[in-house]
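quick one, 619 residues, struct below
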Amino acid sequence: MDSVEECKEVFERFDTSSKGSITTNSLGDALAACGAKVPGFKVRDICDSYKDGAISFDEFCKILNQVKSKNTFKETIKPIELKKKVNVNKGSEKSSEWTTHSYAEEPHASDHTARQSEKLAFVDWINFRLSKDELLLKHGNIPIAEDGTALFAALRDGIILNKLVNDSVEDTVDERALNLPNDAGKLSIFKIQENQTLALNSCVAIGCNVVNIGAQDLIEGKAHLCLGLLWQVIRIGLMAKITLKDCPGLRALLDEFETLEQLLAMSPEEILCRWVNYQLNKVGCKRVVKNFTHDIKDSEVYAHLLVAVCPDDNAKGPIGLEPLNVQDLTKRAEMVLDNAEMLDARSFVRAHDIVNGNQKLNLAFVANLFNMYPAMDDVGDFEIIEETREEKTMRNWMNSLGATPRVKYIYEDLKDGLAIIQLFDKIQNGCVNWKKVNTPPFKALGGAMKQIENCNYAIDLGHNLGFVLVGIDGKNLHDGDKLTLGLVWQMMRHYTLAMLTHDGKIMKDNEIIKWCNNKLESAGKTTNFKSFKDSSLGTSRPIVDLIDAISPGYINYDLVTAAETDDDKFLNARYAITMARKIGARIFALPEDITEVNPKMIMTVFACLMSVGFAKDRK
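---
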């Protein structure tokens, strides 16, 4: 805690009765808001000394100073272990690059060099992408210095991370909901934690896996966690445009007998490798790229690639192959990057990153180059398979839980049953008998049957949890049938409602609606709704009011419109979702789900808010 004033602000936030004291039930949260994580049993030991259940401000400050000075309550964050039966072959390696824990907490010497390179690359990227943000410029957040811990200090208040999420996936965060520094440049620790909670829940919503990372970890600037999360956010933004919708010319990368569905299921690495090879072939280079580590170290591939994508009317002139006349690989790499600068595409990598084959940064360099200069030939008209909003939401949900390998296209990536079975184990811990699961590699002869066995087992797991799976079997999953989406939705619904179990029973829709209406009424709100199809939900007003009922004073009603136009409805929905995430709700719904009154996704919104309400009531 930086000052007594900030400590007082936190205390007053938990002093809901305005009597100059907080209850022992809220002590743990109040300490956490001041940056002191204290295990529950320790909090209970402290509270035993306050028989009347009330703690004054002076007493609170004394407790805070004691727990901080003793430093006995520091929690250890351990990376989650995925099932070894599933983490096999190349899939597990690719997947690990997406997790927050792909950075070791205490790196070896070689890893330290890579971490330093990635830190510098992320600083450059953030400075570039957010260079014109007036708010960040006003408060001096940008540019971030490259030296020391400047990056982690810049991330501390949560503002940059939220803005970076928006840079990767537009309109994810309503920036009007951000807590901003006062005129003196100060922002209390409580408001910082709110920003970080919003950032983390927004990261999850776009498909990041943030297992075992909390707001306090970002505030404390834990390097391995901060860098891992930044990489996920940046990577999602870089890969977002590598689609048939944004670049129909990608169809030219398919072999003669491959389908568009197979292209959709390819990882970004696979697509970019094919793109590089396509460009190399255009300029007569015989090299074939299979990875962004060993295959690019000598810079020959990059030298030819830049020539291939350089426009004829490039403002800074043509690009040549002069770097290949230099034998020193570091100097050659530097000359190649000078050529990239002529295309304004010098990003992520420095010469030593190329020579050392840093996979993350070279992948990012190529992805950015593709986004700027795809240079694909016209392939004529064809029907583009475009991911629906619901499919995207389900995909992000699966990836946020750590699906291995990462899901790119639901109907192709779930065909072997492995990702579905993993997710069952996550939504209902211990429900999977891993001895029944067939794992890769799947042989050409009999492999399809092994995959169908997995899919049939996944259907059995659904039946065991009471899912309604009429007319769907393992063969449907293996064939990429659209019925797959129905199974995934029921898994998401189960996962969401599991947060609301009471006496071992999962809440039903009518119980959620009743609780929400009672909460609204008890808070003096006039809004209510009869079902998740209620047209009034399209205004977002009942959602906004429920957030304010759960966390009084959080909603700025000056930002809530009368919802008379579609644009106003969208603004309300985006604000409602953002504020829900800010108070701790893990929302996957999009603003359009609310404005169009999608009952399935609206149910998840209210269920998540109810879970937050339950948690606050227990405290």
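The longest strand covers residues 21-23.
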